[in-house]
Amino acid sequence: MTTLVTGATGNTGRHVVAELVRGGERVRALTRNPAAAEATFPAEVDLVAGTHTAPETLDAALGGVDRLHITVTAGLAAVGPELVRRAVDAGVRRITVLWGGYVGPVEQAVADSGAAWTRLEAQEFMSNTLTWADSIRAEGVVREPYDHPSALVHEADIGAVAATALLDDGHAGNAYNLTGPESLTTSERVALLSRALGRDIDFVRITHEQAVDRLMSTGVSRADAEYVVGWYAEPPAEATTVADTVERVTGRPARTFAQWVAEHADRF
Prior knowledge:
Strand content: 15-25%
Shape: globular
Distance between the termini: 40 Å
Helix content: 25-40%
Oligomer: single chain
């Protein structure tokens, strides 16, 4: 069996690859720059050039592939259904899809594909904390508009659930809500970071509009910025309530935020 992982060098894709390799699966990793990715993966991973947002170029990459992992990213909505169709036509019979926050065209195409599918409904990634890294290093400050609770999930746990669903039977047709083992407010996360790094970090509240403007300054549209900041203003219950999905699916406890911080302390 061979699995193609799209977005293989991304926050979650690299963990999917690692877990599949650990499970003895043949892995084909899709990346825009295979040469740059060589140091990231074991030698047995087959690196192929391409992007899932150009499915018309992926016939060779899909050849001989039985399983597929899709990460829904910006720009995929319009072409994702074609990617799914080409994958099924090429012989893919099992698909995991890491959703983009809601059931959109790609997620629906996967559900309608005829392949055995599993949707990974991760709420907030622990890696989102890295957006604080610059201001923490430069000023010892985190600026956010809301002190919201969030049951953030470790990216490695997303990879572990994806690999399990791809390799093992019994997961077809399931939409898995993925969270970490605790729900933490922004101020609680800042306090954990402060203790782990051994220095004071201040949490400074900014306005909703300042948060929107900050996102827009990175090239995000106003509509998308309002959606993101609005999510933090009123996070859904699924994002604030701890689910046991990671442990139930993988047999291992979900990783804590403190573990994530220890792994990434050098970034702050």
